[in-house]
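Entry 14: structure prediction run for YihY/virulence factor BrkB family protein. Input pasted below.
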Amino acid sequence: MSKVINTAKEFGGMLKETFSQWNEREPFNNSIIIAYYTIFSLPGLLVIIINIAGYFFGAEAVTKQLTGQIGGIVGGNTATDVQEIVANATRSDGTVLSTILSIATLLFGATGVFYQLQQILNKMWEVKPKPKQVFVKLVKDRVFSFGLILVVGFLLLVSLVLSAALTAVSDWVRSHVAEGLVIVFKTLDIVVSVGVITLLFAAIFKFLPDAKIQWRDVWTGAVLTAVLFVIAKFLLGLYFGHSDPGSTYGAAGSIILIMLWVSYAGLILLFGAEFTQVYAKRHGRKIRPTEVAVSTEGQTDNGAIVNKKTEAETKDKGAQTQQQEMGSRKDREGKDTQRDRKERSQRKYKGDLRSPRRNQNS
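Run finished. Output C-alpha coordinates:
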Protein backbone atom coordinates (compact mmCIF):
# COMPACT_ATOMS: atom_id res chain seq x y z
CA MET A 1 0.00 0.00 0.00
CA SER A 2 2.78 2.40 0.90
CA LYS A 3 4.47 1.65 -2.42
CA VAL A 4 1.31 2.63 -4.29
CA ILE A 5 1.06 5.86 -2.28
CA ASN A 6 4.72 6.70 -2.95
CA THR A 7 4.25 6.01 -6.67
CA ALA A 8 1.17 8.23 -6.73
CA LYS A 9 3.06 11.02 -4.95
CA GLU A 10 5.96 10.69 -7.38
CA PHE A 11 3.61 10.78 -10.36
CA GLY A 12 1.82 13.82 -8.93
CA GLY A 13 5.16 15.56 -8.43
CA MET A 14 6.13 14.86 -12.04
CA LEU A 15 2.80 16.23 -13.27
CA LYS A 16 3.28 19.37 -11.17
CA GLU A 17 6.81 19.88 -12.50
CA THR A 18 5.62 19.16 -16.04
CA PHE A 19 2.86 21.74 -15.82
CA SER A 20 5.25 24.35 -14.42
CA GLN A 21 7.80 23.87 -17.22
CA TRP A 22 5.10 23.49 -19.88
CA ASN A 23 3.51 26.76 -18.80
CA GLU A 24 6.86 28.58 -19.03
CA ARG A 25 7.37 27.60 -22.69
CA GLU A 26 4.40 29.58 -24.09
CA PRO A 27 2.32 26.50 -25.00
CA PHE A 28 -0.63 28.49 -26.32
CA ASN A 29 1.52 30.37 -28.82
CA ASN A 30 3.16 27.13 -29.95
CA SER A 31 -0.18 25.35 -30.30
CA ILE A 32 -1.48 28.21 -32.45
CA ILE A 33 1.61 27.88 -34.66
CA ILE A 34 0.89 24.16 -35.04
CA ALA A 35 -2.75 24.89 -35.90
CA TYR A 36 -1.76 27.55 -38.44
CA TYR A 37 0.60 25.23 -40.31
CA THR A 38 -1.91 22.38 -40.08
CA ILE A 39 -4.40 24.40 -42.12
CA PHE A 40 -1.88 24.71 -44.96
CA SER A 41 -0.73 21.10 -44.57
CA LEU A 42 -4.23 19.65 -44.35
CA PRO A 43 -4.95 19.16 -48.10
CA GLY A 44 -1.64 17.41 -48.73
CA LEU A 45 -1.91 15.32 -45.57
CA LEU A 46 -5.40 14.11 -46.37
CA VAL A 47 -4.64 13.34 -50.01
CA ILE A 48 -1.53 11.30 -49.15
CA ILE A 49 -3.18 9.43 -46.27
CA ILE A 50 -6.33 8.68 -48.30
CA ASN A 51 -4.25 7.37 -51.20
CA ILE A 52 -2.20 5.11 -48.91
CA ALA A 53 -5.15 3.61 -47.04
CA GLY A 54 -7.38 3.80 -50.13
CA TYR A 55 -5.05 1.44 -51.98
CA PHE A 56 -6.37 -1.34 -49.73
CA PHE A 57 -9.89 -0.20 -48.82
CA GLY A 58 -10.79 2.17 -51.62
CA ALA A 59 -10.49 5.96 -51.52
CA GLU A 60 -14.22 6.48 -51.09
CA ALA A 61 -14.44 4.24 -48.02
CA VAL A 62 -11.39 5.84 -46.40
CA THR A 63 -12.67 9.35 -47.13
CA LYS A 64 -16.01 8.44 -45.57
CA GLN A 65 -14.27 7.06 -42.48
CA LEU A 66 -12.09 10.17 -42.10
CA THR A 67 -14.93 12.63 -42.58
CA GLY A 68 -16.99 10.61 -40.10
CA GLN A 69 -14.21 10.92 -37.51
CA ILE A 70 -13.85 14.65 -38.19
CA GLY A 71 -17.61 15.15 -38.09
CA GLY A 72 -17.79 13.41 -34.72
CA ILE A 73 -15.41 16.02 -33.32
CA VAL A 74 -16.19 19.33 -35.03
CA GLY A 75 -19.56 18.70 -36.68
CA GLY A 76 -20.95 17.51 -39.99
CA ASN A 77 -20.65 20.85 -41.78
CA THR A 78 -16.92 21.01 -41.16
CA ALA A 79 -16.55 17.39 -42.29
CA THR A 80 -18.31 18.27 -45.56
CA ASP A 81 -15.95 21.21 -46.07
CA VAL A 82 -12.97 18.93 -45.46
CA GLN A 83 -14.33 16.55 -48.09
CA GLU A 84 -14.48 19.44 -50.55
CA ILE A 85 -10.89 20.38 -49.68
CA VAL A 86 -9.76 16.87 -50.57
CA ALA A 87 -11.71 16.96 -53.83
CA ASN A 88 -10.21 20.32 -54.80
CA ALA A 89 -6.70 19.19 -53.88
CA THR A 90 -6.91 16.15 -56.17
CA ARG A 91 -8.43 18.08 -59.07
CA SER A 92 -6.10 18.66 -62.02
CA ASP A 93 -6.42 20.03 -65.56
CA GLY A 94 -4.63 16.97 -66.91
CA THR A 95 -1.32 18.47 -68.06
CA VAL A 96 1.91 16.87 -66.93
CA LEU A 97 3.38 20.14 -65.65
CA SER A 98 0.35 21.01 -63.54
CA THR A 99 0.26 17.48 -62.12
CA ILE A 100 3.94 17.67 -61.13
CA LEU A 101 3.45 21.11 -59.57
CA SER A 102 0.37 19.93 -57.71
CA ILE A 103 2.20 16.90 -56.30
CA ALA A 104 5.21 19.02 -55.29
CA THR A 105 2.96 21.60 -53.62
CA LEU A 106 1.03 18.91 -51.76
CA LEU A 107 4.22 17.21 -50.56
CA PHE A 108 5.81 20.47 -49.43
CA GLY A 109 2.62 21.61 -47.71
CA ALA A 110 2.00 18.26 -46.05
CA THR A 111 5.45 18.21 -44.45
CA GLY A 112 5.21 21.79 -43.15
CA VAL A 113 3.36 21.02 -39.93
CA PHE A 114 5.80 18.24 -38.99
CA TYR A 115 8.76 20.53 -39.66
CA GLN A 116 7.35 23.23 -37.39
CA LEU A 117 6.52 20.65 -34.74
CA GLN A 118 10.12 19.46 -34.90
CA GLN A 119 11.39 23.00 -34.25
CA ILE A 120 9.10 23.37 -31.24
CA LEU A 121 10.11 20.00 -29.77
CA ASN A 122 13.80 20.79 -30.33
CA LYS A 123 13.40 23.98 -28.34
CA MET A 124 11.52 22.18 -25.55
CA TRP A 125 14.15 19.44 -25.33
CA GLU A 126 17.01 21.98 -25.56
CA VAL A 127 18.66 20.83 -28.80
CA LYS A 128 19.23 22.47 -32.17
CA PRO A 129 20.85 21.46 -35.49
CA LYS A 130 24.51 22.25 -36.06
CA PRO A 131 24.94 25.52 -38.00
CA LYS A 132 26.97 23.97 -40.85
CA GLN A 133 24.34 21.32 -41.56
CA VAL A 134 21.23 23.49 -41.63
CA PHE A 135 20.48 23.24 -45.37
CA VAL A 136 21.25 19.53 -45.66
CA LYS A 137 19.23 18.87 -42.55
CA LEU A 138 16.31 20.91 -43.91
CA VAL A 139 16.10 18.60 -46.93
CA LYS A 140 16.43 15.51 -44.73
CA ASP A 141 13.74 16.82 -42.39
CA ARG A 142 11.31 17.27 -45.26
CA VAL A 143 11.98 13.75 -46.49
CA PHE A 144 11.63 12.38 -42.98
CA SER A 145 8.39 14.31 -42.47
CA PHE A 146 7.03 12.64 -45.57
CA GLY A 147 8.07 9.31 -44.08
CA LEU A 148 6.18 10.19 -40.91
CA ILE A 149 3.10 10.90 -43.03
CA LEU A 150 3.44 7.40 -44.45
CA VAL A 151 3.55 6.08 -40.89
CA VAL A 152 0.35 8.00 -40.12
CA GLY A 153 -1.25 6.45 -43.19
CA PHE A 154 -0.15 2.98 -42.11
CA LEU A 155 -1.49 3.50 -38.59
CA LEU A 156 -4.78 4.71 -40.04
CA LEU A 157 -4.86 1.56 -42.16
CA VAL A 158 -4.30 -0.60 -39.07
CA SER A 159 -6.98 1.32 -37.19
CA LEU A 160 -9.47 0.84 -40.03
CA VAL A 161 -8.78 -2.89 -40.22
CA LEU A 162 -9.16 -3.42 -36.48
CA SER A 163 -12.23 -1.18 -36.21
CA ALA A 164 -13.89 -2.97 -39.13
CA ALA A 165 -13.14 -6.36 -37.57
CA LEU A 166 -14.47 -5.30 -34.16
CA THR A 167 -17.60 -3.82 -35.74
CA ALA A 168 -18.29 -7.02 -37.68
CA VAL A 169 -17.82 -9.20 -34.60
CA SER A 170 -19.93 -6.81 -32.50
CA ASP A 171 -22.80 -6.97 -35.01
CA TRP A 172 -22.64 -10.77 -35.09
CA VAL A 173 -22.63 -11.00 -31.28
CA ARG A 174 -25.57 -8.61 -31.04
CA SER A 175 -27.70 -10.69 -33.39
CA HIS A 176 -26.63 -14.21 -32.34
CA VAL A 177 -25.45 -14.12 -28.72
CA ALA A 178 -26.34 -11.25 -26.40
CA GLU A 179 -26.66 -7.54 -26.91
CA GLY A 180 -25.05 -6.86 -23.53
CA LEU A 181 -21.70 -8.10 -24.81
CA VAL A 182 -21.55 -5.27 -27.34
CA ILE A 183 -20.14 -2.97 -24.69
CA VAL A 184 -17.11 -5.25 -24.47
CA PHE A 185 -16.33 -4.68 -28.14
CA LYS A 186 -16.92 -0.95 -27.82
CA THR A 187 -14.39 -0.94 -25.00
CA LEU A 188 -11.98 -2.88 -27.19
CA ASP A 189 -12.52 -0.32 -29.95
CA ILE A 190 -11.52 2.47 -27.54
CA VAL A 191 -8.46 0.48 -26.46
CA VAL A 192 -7.48 0.03 -30.11
CA SER A 193 -7.86 3.77 -30.72
CA VAL A 194 -5.68 4.57 -27.70
CA GLY A 195 -3.11 2.03 -28.90
CA VAL A 196 -2.92 3.48 -32.42
CA ILE A 197 -2.67 7.04 -31.09
CA THR A 198 0.03 5.89 -28.65
CA LEU A 199 2.05 4.50 -31.57
CA LEU A 200 1.70 7.81 -33.42
CA PHE A 201 2.87 9.90 -30.45
CA ALA A 202 5.69 7.45 -29.77
CA ALA A 203 6.89 7.86 -33.37
CA ILE A 204 6.75 11.65 -33.03
CA PHE A 205 8.66 11.74 -29.73
CA LYS A 206 11.26 9.19 -30.79
CA PHE A 207 12.07 10.21 -34.36
CA LEU A 208 10.93 13.79 -34.99
CA PRO A 209 13.18 15.87 -32.65
CA ASP A 210 16.97 16.01 -33.05
CA ALA A 211 17.37 14.22 -29.74
CA LYS A 212 18.25 10.77 -28.42
CA ILE A 213 15.75 9.39 -25.96
CA GLN A 214 15.21 5.87 -24.68
CA TRP A 215 12.14 3.89 -25.64
CA ARG A 216 11.02 3.39 -22.03
CA ASP A 217 10.67 7.16 -21.65
CA VAL A 218 9.00 7.46 -25.05
CA TRP A 219 6.34 4.86 -24.25
CA THR A 220 5.51 6.42 -20.88
CA GLY A 221 5.06 9.87 -22.40
CA ALA A 222 3.17 8.53 -25.42
CA VAL A 223 0.67 6.57 -23.32
CA LEU A 224 -0.09 9.58 -21.11
CA THR A 225 -0.45 11.83 -24.17
CA ALA A 226 -2.75 9.34 -25.90
CA VAL A 227 -5.03 9.02 -22.86
CA LEU A 228 -5.27 12.80 -22.50
CA PHE A 229 -5.89 13.08 -26.25
CA VAL A 230 -8.80 10.61 -26.18
CA ILE A 231 -10.34 12.37 -23.17
CA ALA A 232 -10.00 15.76 -24.88
CA LYS A 233 -11.47 14.32 -28.09
CA PHE A 234 -14.54 13.12 -26.19
CA LEU A 235 -15.01 16.40 -24.29
CA LEU A 236 -14.52 18.57 -27.37
CA GLY A 237 -16.95 16.36 -29.28
CA LEU A 238 -19.56 17.06 -26.60
CA TYR A 239 -18.78 20.79 -26.64
CA PHE A 240 -18.91 21.17 -30.42
CA GLY A 241 -22.02 18.98 -30.51
CA HIS A 242 -23.99 21.29 -28.21
CA SER A 243 -22.57 24.60 -29.41
CA ASP A 244 -21.23 25.96 -32.66
CA PRO A 245 -18.39 28.40 -31.93
CA GLY A 246 -17.54 28.55 -35.63
CA SER A 247 -20.93 30.05 -36.55
CA THR A 248 -19.71 33.46 -35.40
CA TYR A 249 -17.15 33.52 -38.23
CA GLY A 250 -19.56 32.72 -41.07
CA ALA A 251 -17.89 31.15 -44.11
CA ALA A 252 -14.60 30.78 -42.22
CA GLY A 253 -16.30 28.86 -39.40
CA SER A 254 -15.04 25.45 -40.53
CA ILE A 255 -11.44 26.67 -40.65
CA ILE A 256 -11.80 28.20 -37.18
CA LEU A 257 -13.20 24.96 -35.75
CA ILE A 258 -10.35 22.93 -37.22
CA MET A 259 -7.82 25.41 -35.83
CA LEU A 260 -9.48 25.28 -32.40
CA TRP A 261 -9.39 21.48 -32.35
CA VAL A 262 -5.77 21.32 -33.54
CA SER A 263 -4.79 23.98 -30.98
CA TYR A 264 -6.23 21.92 -28.13
CA ALA A 265 -4.57 18.79 -29.53
CA GLY A 266 -1.29 20.73 -29.79
CA LEU A 267 -1.50 21.73 -26.13
CA ILE A 268 -1.87 18.08 -25.15
CA LEU A 269 0.97 17.01 -27.44
CA LEU A 270 3.32 19.63 -25.97
CA PHE A 271 2.31 18.66 -22.43
CA GLY A 272 3.11 15.04 -23.24
CA ALA A 273 6.48 16.03 -24.70
CA GLU A 274 7.30 18.02 -21.55
CA PHE A 275 6.23 15.10 -19.36
CA THR A 276 8.50 12.78 -21.36
CA GLN A 277 11.45 15.07 -20.67
CA VAL A 278 10.63 15.37 -16.96
CA TYR A 279 10.16 11.61 -16.65
CA ALA A 280 13.50 10.91 -18.34
CA LYS A 281 15.38 13.37 -16.11
CA ARG A 282 13.68 12.09 -12.94
CA HIS A 283 15.02 8.62 -13.73
CA GLY A 284 18.53 9.79 -14.58
CA ARG A 285 18.21 9.41 -18.35
CA LYS A 286 19.05 12.77 -19.83
CA ILE A 287 17.85 13.63 -23.34
CA ARG A 288 20.92 14.14 -25.57
CA PRO A 289 21.30 15.68 -29.04
CA THR A 290 21.84 13.50 -32.11
CA GLU A 291 24.97 13.57 -34.27
CA VAL A 292 23.60 16.43 -36.39
CA ALA A 293 22.60 18.58 -33.41
CA VAL A 294 24.04 20.27 -30.35
CA SER A 295 22.68 20.88 -26.88
CA THR A 296 21.27 24.31 -26.01
CA GLU A 297 20.95 23.62 -22.29
CA GLY A 298 21.97 26.69 -20.32
CA GLN A 299 21.40 29.07 -23.24
CA THR A 300 18.90 31.87 -23.65
CA ASP A 301 16.79 32.33 -26.78
CA ASN A 302 19.43 34.58 -28.39
CA GLY A 303 22.16 31.99 -27.82
CA ALA A 304 23.92 33.64 -24.89
CA ILE A 305 25.42 31.19 -22.42
CA VAL A 306 23.94 31.30 -18.96
CA ASN A 307 25.91 29.56 -16.22
CA LYS A 308 23.23 28.92 -13.64
CA LYS A 309 25.69 27.81 -10.98
CA THR A 310 27.88 30.90 -11.40
CA GLU A 311 24.83 33.13 -11.42
CA ALA A 312 23.57 31.58 -8.20
CA GLU A 313 27.00 31.89 -6.58
CA THR A 314 27.19 35.55 -7.62
CA LYS A 315 23.79 36.22 -6.08
CA ASP A 316 24.84 34.47 -2.86
CA LYS A 317 28.07 36.47 -2.68
CA GLY A 318 26.18 39.68 -3.32
CA ALA A 319 23.72 38.86 -0.55
CA GLN A 320 26.56 38.03 1.85
CA THR A 321 28.37 41.28 0.98
CA GLN A 322 25.18 43.25 1.53
CA GLN A 323 24.64 41.59 4.91
CA GLN A 324 28.24 42.32 5.90
CA GLU A 325 27.85 45.98 4.93
CA MET A 326 24.63 46.24 6.91
CA GLY A 327 26.34 44.61 9.89
CA SER A 328 29.29 47.01 9.65
CA ARG A 329 26.94 49.97 9.40
CA LYS A 330 25.06 48.82 12.49
CA ASP A 331 28.35 48.37 14.37
CA ARG A 332 29.45 51.89 13.42
CA GLU A 333 26.09 53.30 14.40
CA GLY A 334 26.30 51.42 17.69
CA LYS A 335 29.80 52.73 18.40
CA ASP A 336 28.73 56.27 17.51
CA THR A 337 25.77 55.97 19.86
CA GLN A 338 27.96 54.72 22.70
CA ARG A 339 30.46 57.55 22.10
CA ASP A 340 27.66 60.13 22.09
CA ARG A 341 26.28 58.75 25.33
CA LYS A 342 29.71 58.82 26.92
CA GLU A 343 30.31 62.42 25.84
CA ARG A 344 26.87 63.49 27.11
CA SER A 345 27.49 61.81 30.44
CA GLN A 346 30.91 63.49 30.71
CA ARG A 347 29.41 66.89 29.92
CA LYS A 348 26.69 66.32 32.47
CA TYR A 349 29.26 65.28 35.08
CA LYS A 350 31.34 68.39 34.47
CA GLY A 351 28.24 70.51 34.67
CA ASP A 352 27.38 68.99 38.05
CA LEU A 353 30.87 69.80 39.35
CA ARG A 354 30.54 73.44 38.34
CA SER A 355 27.13 73.87 39.91
CA PRO A 356 28.32 74.31 43.60
CA ARG A 357 30.77 77.04 42.58
CA ARG A 358 28.00 78.95 40.90
CA ASN A 359 25.92 78.68 44.04
CA GLN A 360 28.79 79.93 46.21
CA ASN A 361 29.43 82.93 43.96
CA SER A 362 25.81 83.83 44.09
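Notes: Residues 2-297 form one domain. Will compare against the previous run tomorrow.
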